[in-house]
Amino acid sequence: MHPRDQTIFALSSGRLPSAIAIVRVSGSQSGTALRSLAGKVPQPRQATRALLRDGRGEPIDDAVVLWFPGPASATGEDVAEFHVHGGRAVLAALLAALSALAQMRAAEPGEFTRRAFENGKLDLTEAEGLDDLIHADTDRQRRQALRQLKGLLGDRARDWRARIIEASALIEAGIDFSDEGDVSAELLAPARQRIMALLDEIEEVLGAQGKAERLRDGLVVAIAGPPNVGKSTLINQLARREVAIVSPYAGTTRDVIEVQLDLGGYPVTVIDTAGIRETDDPIEQEGVRRARARAGEADLVLWLVDTPDVKHQHDSAPPLWTVRNKIDLDPQGSNAADSPAETADPALHPALRGDDFGNVAFEISAARGDGISGLITALVIFAQFFFGEGEGGLIARERQRELLGQAVVSLRRSIAIFDLGEEFAAEDLRAAAFALGRLLGRVGVEDILDVIFREFCIGK
Questions:
Q1: Residue 150, C-beta contacts closer than 8 angstroms, at least 6 positions apart
Q2: DSSP secondary structure string for all residues of 181-208
Q3: Which of 47, 182, 299, 336 could, after both became Cys, cross-link 370 (CB 3.0–4.6 A)?
Q4: Can you give the pTM of this predicted structure?
């Protein structure tokens, strides 16, 4: 039997032990599983108490079972659910009893969602949204994923694809009646207008996104600078816990340390790098090399110094902010309140306006906490500009952007060659419709399905 024809099962709830554990079963043998373990198939969508027994008649647990006959189920197949007490021994006994049944096997990662996709319960953009929702760490990520799961991009793409097909039908009808000039012109003119309107709509969606799809991965901020200026202390302050070793000895940090933060709802990965300096220590040299490389890949670099006259030694492609640390040790008594980040509204600082973030300077005390809140506020402002519309956009993945871009190219080409021959325009319209079909997962996506659904957890 083909694996897709087998009935699958998996734990679909959280980590054990727990108050309740939910085991989901999907496939043609779901009803058989209920009869074998619960002794009956309950009424559809009606929670029913049952004593579960294994194949030898030994009791497993006093449970609640549910029955969702297909196609009106989450996967489009017959689905059963076993709600049992969330102990490891209970779950082990239940899974062993299910495994003993014919044509039953444990589900692979994302297999329930994949079956829902293959049975037309959701399109590929909605499946991607579900995966993003499961992995969302911040509120903004959650809202963006929920928009995808609601099918906002998929609905637009289906509408665009239907309108492309309608325009193609008009063009092909015009070709059929090409010997009747008036009829051909009456069909081709509205087809061209529809194509131009479609092109404007898709280009507007593409143009409005900014870096919205980066919201899934988050903003990357690298803390760089000379040794022993307080980089590890700063990352501990931002994380509000000790994630890096703090030592008075230069060169303590040899490798890159990363911590994921939620700043104002934006996902931010902060990197603590090795101190950048000339050294004869081969291990420290490797740390410096990695620090330079990682900072060059970041979206923003915080260049940390402990004296005002230290110049940065890093050729930074991303924006670089100078952060003077240890102001609590300044004999002149510098106060963090004088820092641009500690003004009443950091957004009023000229360097935090528009898209130019390259000339921002701050004064902090990472050890005492002075200036940290203002620096965090400035980072949130930078994230707002970096992500643009963020969760308000329709595009959440690079795959989606690429396919919409392919559709735009094909639509532009169809308009450009329209007067040279309707046949060529019709071919480009077919290419645009194919790109949108790939976006929805309805055509030509077999090569990426395994990659996408492998990212899901088991039981989803």
A1: 126, 129
A2: HHHHHHHHHHHHHHHHHHHHHHHHHHHT
A3: 336
A4: 0.76
